Amino acid sequence: MKNLALVAWLDMRESMRSRWFLVYLVVFGGLMALFFVTGITDSVVMGFTGLSRLLLVYIQVTIVILPIFILITTVKSISADRESAILEYMLSFPISLGEYYWGKMVGRFVITFTPVFLALVGGIVWGAIQGAPIPWGPFLLYGAFVLALCVAFLGIAFCISTLVKSHDMALGSSFVLWIALLAFLDVALIGLMLQNRWSDSLIITLALLNPLELFRVGAIALFDPELSVMGPVAYFLLDTFGRPLLLAYTIFYPILLGGVAAWAGYWLLRKRDLL
Amino acid sequence: MIEIAQARKRFGGNVVLDGVNLQIAPGERIALMGPNGAGKTTLVRVVLGFYHLDEGRVRVDGFDPVAQRVEVLRRIAFIPQTPPPIRLLVSELIEYVARSSQIEAERIREEAQALELVVEEHWQKPFFKLSGGMKQKLLIAIALARRGRYFIFDEPTANLDPKARELFYKRLEELSGEHGILFITHRIEELAGLIDRKIYMELGKVVEDEPFAMDCPRGAASRM
To answer: If you average pLDDT over residues A10-14, what whole number do you get?
Structure first.
């Protein structure tokens, strides 16, 4: 455990010095600042206003940016270190593969989740100072959704990173995965359903398996579960499963997915040649 | 004792280790030689637990390098041929080594000092930004500070100037006889007086394994 904490701590410190982390901070912190500067909390769009409107916009941005940021910065953690012989050296010390692998993952989780969550907290605090009522329920649930999304994509990224031996292949695979998941959001799903006459159950299953779609459905369901805002597939899911079950699934499924993917990555690391 | 029995390893269709048998006793000092692609580095990586053998077995003091890697790596200090571009600060790298290997960081500083590298001057620099020679000196200092039962050196002096090489060899001479050393090298003349056995590999096989002694002093030998 001591070595796991050591690896996590050093990975966090190394990440905090890297350029990608600076960009990551600027993107999420800067966006939140931009929302306030542009008066997003005072505007009304589709019935949303105040901090609810702010959270809604933040959700849209998070869906697109967070997964790709996590994927491209994390897939290189094992594959690039393997290519540059860093892994060979760092693993020549008496440290178990588990301590190294899970330590890296814990460090990367803290470094990716904290800025997004803190930006959210900052936005809420600033809004409260301005006199807007704080939507506590949506805020806490949204925090849990972001955490689940981070775990899902970190697990997937670590799995790709151990599975693929070349850094370029790892990056390419992440992009393909991200584009595929993004493409299967509600608009694409309904398009497919109409154009290709796929069965409804297949479309719904795809939606339930896609952590991005779940994040979107769960997050928007926190505010206003209307068909016009959510899209037909999301509306169907909410109508079929009910709000509490869908929200619980939105939190636990991505965590399970990330956990299984991360475990698969660890298994591969142990069973295959390290270099 | 490092015991390698019938070690066989393939990468795709290429056989890189072809039934290697080798025993290295504690205190033995061995030069492992051979042309590029002979399987030297692969053999070392098998001992360090990085590769799974297709056939055969490896044990380090009775421990399996893959299944019991922590026990094995407690006994082995390793220096790679080329310093990897580690992004940690020098202070962080030393912290990683000291805490994972359970040694005093001060010992690494002392070993670096013996190689004329003042670690404190580079404490807050990323490791990869040090010069090639400095990086290699730090890796040597780390390995020596760990006082491994076995040292595995993969051409450790490739980036060092002649003076630094001499300091390194002098430091090795000072080590007590209980440490085994496995040098991968192409310049055996530099190791005169330091090694007592020479192993030559070719196409994944050990083709020569014999005692080694060179009468002339190392300084003279390296000028030959």
So the answer is: 95
User: Do you know the residue count of chain B?
Assistant: 224
Location of structure tokens 């015991």: B3
**Contact (CB, 8 A) for A131 and A29:** no
Q: What is the pTM of this model?
A: 0.90
Is B88 in CB contact (< 8 Å) with chain A? Answer: yes
User: What pLDDT does A56 receive?
Assistant: 76
A83 CA: distance to closest CA in chain B (Å): 10
Q: A272: which chain B residues are within 8 Å (Cβ-Cβ)?
A: 52
Closest CA to B60 of B47, B42, B51, B77: B47
Rounded Cα–Cα distance for residues A216 and A70 (Å): 17
Instruction: Measure B67 CA to nearest chain A CA, in Å.
Output: 9
Given this model, what pLDDT does residue A227 score?
59
Reduced to 3 states (helix: H, G, I; strand: E, B; else coil), residue A17 is: helix
**Which of A116-125, A142-151, A159-168, B164-173 has maximum average pLDDT?**
A142-151
Q: How many residues does chain A have?
A: 275
- Would you call A97 and B69 a contact, using CB atoms and an 8 Å cutoff? yes
Distance CA A95, CA B176 (A): 26
Taking the CB of residue A20, how many other CB atoms lie within 10 A of it?
Answer: 13
Give CA separation, A114 vs A77, A134, A237, B22, in Å.
Answer: 19, 20, 30, 51
List the single residue in B84, B86, B100 with the smallest CB-CB distance to A95. B100
Q: Report whether pLDDT(A246) > 70.
A: yes
> Is the Cα dihedral A102, A108, A111, A116 positive or negative?
negative
**Judging by DSSP bridges, how do beta strands B150-154 and B76-79 pair with one another?**
parallel
The answer to whether the beta carbons of residues A265 and A159 sit under 8 Å apart is: yes
The yes-or-no verdict on residue A3 having pLDDT over 70 is: yes
- Touching check for B80 and chain A: CB below 8 Å? yes
- Average pLDDT of the segment spanning A215-236: 76
| Rounded-to-integer distance, Cα A81 and Cα A170, Å | 12
Q: In whole angstroms, give the CA distance from residue B25 to residue B59.
A: 12
Which of A258, A210, A217, A219 has the alpha carbon at shortest distance from A241?
A217
Domain ranges of chain A: 2-271
Q: How many CB pairs under 8 A join A and B?
A: 75
Residue A26 pLDDT level (bands cut at 50, 70, 90)? confident
